[in-house]
Structure formats: structure tokens, C-alpha cells
Amino acid sequence: MIRIETLTKQYGPLTVVDSVSMSIERGSITVIVGTSGSGKSTLLRMINRLVEPTSGRVLIDNNDTATEPAHLLRRRIGYVIQGNGLFPHRTVAENIATVPTLLGWDGARISARVDELLRIFQLDPAEFAAKFPHQLSGGQQQRVGVARALAAEPAVLLMDEPFGALDPIIRSKAQDDLLDIQRRFGTTVVLVTHDMDEAFRLGARVAVMSQGRVLQYDRPAVLLTRPADPFVSRLTGTTDRAMKLLSLTTAGEVAEPGAAEGPTVAATASLREVLSDLLWSGAQVATVLNADGTPAGRVTMAGILAHGRNS
Amino acid sequence: MTSLPRPHVIDRLGVLLSLAGAAALVFLPFVVLKANRIMPGDVRSVSEVLPLWATLSFGVILILVAATAIGIADARVRLVVALAGVAVVALAIAAAGNALTPPGNKVVRVSPGTGFWVLLIALGLMATDAITRLRPGPGMRVLFLVLFAAVAGAALAHGMFDNLSIMREYAVNAGRFAREARQHVFLAVGSLAAAVVVALPVGVLCHRVPRIRAGTLGTLNLIQTIPSIALFGILMVPLGALAAAVPWAAEFGIRGIGTAPAMVALFLYSLLPVVANTVVGLGRVSPATVEAARGMGLTSRQILTDIELILAFPVILTGIRIVLVQNIGLVTVAALIGGGGFGTFVFQGIGQTAIDLVLLGAIPTVALAFSSAVLLDALVDVMNRARQ
Questions:
Q1: What distance in Å separates residue B217's CA from the closest CA in chain A?
Q2: Is B63 domain-assigned?
Q3: Is the pLDDT reported for residue B325 higher than 60?
Q4: Structural domains counted in chain B
Q5: Does B294 touch chain A (CB under 8 A)?
Q6: Residue that terminates a domain, selected from B107, B135, B163
């Protein structure tokens, strides 16, 4: 668990982060969202001490991060930035091996880890290990950037607008990959973005920042239904909040027993997608299928509409 | 099909070079014969010094070279023909030297005339133009250089040019020539090495601390604008005073004239290109790369040596190339303050109005600068290809 206590950063008279306190759960994705200049990147960069706080402290598993040399702390924390920051003069394998090499892993362990990560990120080691970053597409570079951050099996992964430079289709794929990876390794992820949809899609909990302060820090559904501040509702948007709410729940979570009928939808599909399917096909009921194709139950139009209501 | 007239492209550079070569042969002396090294000479044309068959072959071959230069576009053919032309002209001047020198006579001087030099330059331009059109890779360019140096070296070692005036001057000065060559290289490379050792940290500092950048580069720029003779002269005063005041300095060879002021002046001239290119090279490293390196826990020193300097190295190497070529030329002037090097022959030759002695200093200087440029350009190319 990461505990942030009254963390403040001032540059001269300017307060960029203003006495922020929050707890970040172990093994989940926490998203910090805000407009540019809200202090969200500074807050993130104080966790691995790329920015030294003016006051306050950060505890990771109850250890004050200020007590160890900053570069040693950073080797235990994964870090991904927009535009990936891969080393252009090093191969994909050498890039991924950066932190394990710094930590003095032996060669066999490093190359096994590099191969494993390349496979997890759907990059064939035989084809990609010896390539240079400029020989990869933007999406592939981004995946290598995340693989590099995960190389030394960090418990915490910090991501600063990691998908900002990707086009929408590749971004959506990268977000899915991140959810998979997070489930697979149980990594504690803290991600900064200015994109509310991305925040809602990835974050188990979302912190909304403005002018150096955290205005609200809660589950996405709560941000939608009980915004603590007019700025939060402005940021989440009011015109389609019912649809946003539906997109936070999957069909599998609300499937009820009953006869199979109507169109079939995946258990991982959001209620928003199921609603769209039902409207498109004119049906009232959809059958939910598990990943292995077995029926998981059904969802009805009425049930979906009830979930979109502000309760 | 084959009877269709093909549009014939006339090579403009070829026309120009052919006209220059032809004019040189007709109007300018090919060789100059002097009774001794400082007497005014008698000019001789090719036909006056070579037997009839040789003169005719010489003319026919050069006409074929000109025809190739004007009418053939294939760069490989042009290169081979141009080099053949160089060989023929070299053979002709060697033959002229042998023909005009009475056996056993060491006093007569046979100098290549302006006609010879113009012809050689025209053929050399044709050859370098052809090489440029071929766009050879760095390895191939170095190979060309090595082959050319080997052929030239073999020809000199064989002694075929020994009756020419420059080689006569060489024979008289052989011992000094080796010494001045070593001194020339020592001054050029030594001052460069010292400059790199100082300029790299200064460049890194200028990159990290923008406040001092303008001032530092401005000062170094100012040094560059001081004419070399003036800088050599200015340094004589403080170094002379230092030698007079500090006994061990003099023992170390620090004096107002000689190697010390030459080394210091060349060192000062070398600073700007290396510092400026270090700043530019480091500035080109993507901030995201440095940020990622820091975020992953590289120390400041590791970021500098493993990331920033390596990525900036091709640009820094370009600065080093500029300095080396510039220094090889400037060392010549250092001879004026007793610094030694090939310039010794140049200024001695000017003093004695012995143009052959001037050439004995000038030609190796040009060859040295040219070779360094080719070698370092190739190295910069290799670096840039390795990481784009």
C-alpha cells in the first residue's frame, strides 16, 4: 500500500501540489485525473522522488521513501512515460534489461525475464529482441516501454500519460493489455491521465485533481453519482453520465438466471455495449456467455435501465 | 531500335575540366628546368622532353580522358579513366625528370610546371567528382584512401620521381622531414586531445547550466576570431614571462617560442568546435529518454556516460573532425614561432625563394588534412548508421 501524507510541492511562491493525502490500495489501478497544470504529474513524480516534496511524505508498505537513496528507490518502482522514452541506441532486449542489469541480475535470469516479457506483450523474442526502437511501430514501442518498467518485477508501477501518444485503436488495445497485466502480476498501478474515459475504464479508484488539490477520490461510480464538487461533475460530464455509469458495470456482474434468448454478449462486455446491442437488434433480452462459451445467464433491457438510474 | 539516335548528354563539368586541361597543356609550361635550385628556369613542353611515341600516346590518352569526361555518364568508368589519366600524367612528369637530368648531376632542378599542376587538379577533380557520384559507403571511402596512399607510397619508394625537384629537396632534408612530420602530427593531435579533455566537461556544464552557455561560447568564439599569427604572437609574452619567473616551467620546455605557445594556441582554437558540438549533441538527446533513465534509477553519472554522451557522440565526433583538419592546417603557421612541423619547410622555402621547398611542406600538409577528413567522416558515418 502507498500512503501519501500531506504532500506539498512549491516552486517559489507557486504551490503545485497542495497538502495532498491519500491511500492507494495494493494490487489495484488508481488513476489521478485532472486538467493540465493541476499538479497530477508532480504528485506522481513525488512517489518515486523524481520531484522531491517540499513537505509531507510518501510511505510504501509503511516505509518512508525519503529514507533510501532516490536512485535505489526508483529501481524498485516501475515508471512509464508518454512517448515511452526508450533508449534509441539500445536494442529492445537491452532496453528491457535496464533495471535488472542495474540490480546485478545474472545474465541467464535477465534473458529469461526479457523473453518472458516479450511473449506476454505479444512480441516474438526471435523477431523483436535484437531490433532497435526506431524499427518498431508506436504501439510496439509503447509495449516495450511497459515491459521495461515491469522487468524487475516491481510491486508498484507509475504511469504518466502512458497512452497519450497512441491513436485511439491502439490506445484501446494498450488499455486492455494493462488491465490484463495488472491482474496477472497483481501490480499496484498509479496512472496519470487527463482523459476521463481512460480514468473510468482503468481505475478501480479515481482521484480528481485541480489546482494542486485532490477534489474527490473514490470509485468511478461514486464520482458520477455523487460528485463532491462542481468541477468533478464538469470533468465527468453531465450529458452522458448515465451511459458512463453503464460502462462501469459488465454484463457478467449483473447476469440473472433465466432462459437463453435474444442476442449473445460476452460476460466482459459493459452494460453500455449490451444496451447498444439490444437497441440495434430490437430485442429486450440478451444472453450472457462466459469466455469459454458457456451461458452465464441473461440481462434484460429493464435491468440495464435500472443500473443507469441515479440511485 | 538500335538505330534510333540516343539523346547525348554533355557533362558540363567534364567540358570545363577538359578545356582547363587542354589550355594548361597548350599555354602553360609542363616542366621547368633550372640550372640550380634558385636560378630562374627554362620552360619545356611535353613534346620537348618526351620521345615522339610517348608524346603521341600521352596526347591520345588525355584526349580519351577528355572524351570520357564530356560524354560518359557512368561514374565507375569516369573514376577509372580519371585515375588512369593521373597515372599517365605522373609517369610523364617522372620521365621528364629523368630525361632532363644529366646522369649523376645533383644540382640541376626539374620542377613540375603550372601546366602539370593544372592538369593534375583537373584530373583529381574528375576523380573526386566520380567518387561523389558513386556515393560509396564509409568502408569503401577508406579503402579508396588506403589504395591511393599505397600506390602513391609505392611510387615514391620506387624512386621514379627522385629526379624531380621536390624529391631532391626531400633527399637533402630526409632526416628533418621525418622529425617535422612527427612534430606536425604531435602538435595537431596533442592539442586536440588536450582540448577534448577540457572541452567535454565544459560542454556538459554548458548543457546543464544554460546561464553560462552564452558567455562560454561567446568567449570561445572570440578566440576563434583572433588571427592565428596574432594568437601565436600574443602567447609569446605570457609564456616567456612564465618561463623567466618559474624555473621548473622552463625545464618543462615552456618558453615564449617553440612548442609551448604553439600547443596552447592550437588548444585554444580547438575548444570552440568541441564545446559547441558537445552542447548541440547533448541538446539533441530527447528529454523523454533522460527522464525515463532517471525514472528507472540510473544515477546522474550513468545517465551522462551511458545515455547522453553516447547519443551525442556522433555530433561530438563531427566537432573533433573539424578541429583535427583545422589544426593540421594551423600547425603550418606555428613554424613561425619555432613550433616546428611542415610549416618549417614552407617558411624556409619562402625565405629562400625555393618554391620546391615550399611544396615539400605544403603537399604533405594537404595530404594529411585530406586523409584525416576522409577517415573521420567515415567514422561519423558509421556512428550515424549504427543508431539513427
A1: 29
A2: yes
A3: yes
A4: 2
A5: yes
A6: B135
